[in-house]
Amino acid sequence: MVVEKFSQSVLNSGIFRLYIATGFFATLIFFVINAELFTPLEMIAGIIGVTIILKGISNMMLSLIILLFSLDNKREELDFKYNEEKINAILAELTVHDADAVIKKR
User: Fold this and answer.
1) Which listed residue, of 57, 69, 93, 104, carries a Cα 20 to 30 Å from 38's Cα?
2) Residue 27 neighbours by CB distance under 10 Å
3) How far is CA 75 from CA 9, 72, 99, in A?
């Protein structure tokens, strides 16, 4: 669940879309500048090919980020919260017992 939330936030940030769009437009500019060297069919095939390759690279980068994402910190945080809740429950119970003992003394 944590990894899914993290990967969803990375995808929603748009950084991979920006990466692919930058590569697309750089390739487009390259082919426009060198228009006398390439036919229109080669330009279209090159732009589509580069865009597909960049999409594949961005998917591999996301996979690597997820693979290297450490859950140890999240686990420690969840354990701390769980232990904190248990301690607070025990303290509340102890307070109730102390108050009950004070009332019975009177």
Assistant:
1) 57
2) 19
3) 19, 5, 36
Q: Helices 40-68 & 2-13, crossing angle to 10 degrees? A: 150
Question: Is 41:93 a contact under the CB 8 Å cutoff?
Answer: no
Q: Which pLDDT tens digit goes with each residue over 63-86?
A: 888 787 766 777 777 777 888 888
Domain ranges of the chain: 1-70, 71-105
Residue pointed to by tokens 């993290």: 6
Largest CA distance in the chain: 102
Which of the given ranges, 26-30, 60-64, 81-85, has the highest pLDDT on average?
26-30
Taking the CA of residue 86 as centre, how many other CA atoms within 13 Å lie in the half-sphere pointing to its CB? 6
The answer to pTM > 0.85 is no
